[in-house]
Amino acid sequence: MAKPNAAAGPRCAGCGIAVQAENKGALGYVPKAALERSPLVCQRCFRMKHYNEASSVTPDQGEFLRLLNGVGGTDSLVVHIVDIYDFEGSLIGGLQRFVGANPVVLVVNKIDLLPPGINPNRIRNWVQQRAKEEGLRTVEVLLVSAKRGTGFERLAETLESHRRGRDVYIVGATNVGKSSLVNRLISDYSDLDAEVTVSSYPGTTLDLIHIPLDDEASVIDTPGIVYDTRLTERVPKAYLDMIVPNKPVKPATYQLDAEQTLYFGALARFDFVEGAHQSFTCYVSPSLTIHRTKLARADALYADHAGELLQPPTKEDLASMPPLTKHRFRIKPGEEVDLYISGLGWIRANGKSGAIVDVHAPKGVKTIMRPALI
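Structure for Ribosome biogenesis GTPase YqeH, as requested:
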């Protein structure tokens, strides 16, 4: 079967989209004077790379799913990249349906964000169990940091072992580090004189990007699936660098009595509703300020200070976001769990006596209780 999207015609080396010089407001625009440049890069990718600008041109999600569906009709190795900091938010639901019988290597990126000293075997076992619960069958689980290059030699060995001369499809949600990983493959294994565009903004890769591995096979970077159940898809793009950490997270532990509240800017809220005095550890970006208050005063604090004392976001940007919605969780005595907010982080319950807690997050953002990661 032909590879998906093997259509002829010039394409952007950064995002994979077909280039055009007619419509400046459409995807793939390249000024006519730049059409002969090599490598050919669209204006969107150029401005992302050199000016860190977000684009007002957004990709079509239906097209993303169409391209991903095409992988199931190939004979290839599938590498699914997830973000350890946002594991449940970045795992592609129903991936087996998309990839068919092709083997899947699960690559867990951004392990550099975890606090130092964490046992990697514990993380790997946790990932394997969570993936199994989500119905994902994998031939191997690898822990890597595309940013630091950690685990990359093992990844290269694993790809060579499992691909057996076949193409390698890189799949994942937006902003899990797919393009960073592909660029390392380009620099180490390909003569291609180009780089895939890397950006902190969702939806950077727009179409399939083929990077030759040898005369017969390629690494193929696919567009990221956009999940609006992640907080990172709901906030204005200017706040992404504040919400997503770029260095190891420093756990912040709070000793709380029942009827106390923690605010994470104006983005989320944690209420310790009922239970004995105990500690809760927050794993969130150090750029976020955590405010503690009494539960009885929490609503008034938000009404009076959201977007000012409690930020991000600002009051103006807060008006464009969904309202906070309450999720109640009952923690059993002795249960080791995280209260997880997709795209923001999680709160680890450390007590052994049980508790009732409420987690408030913007409506539609995935908020769950899960087995403790750390």
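The CA atoms of residues 111 and 255 lie 27 Å apart.
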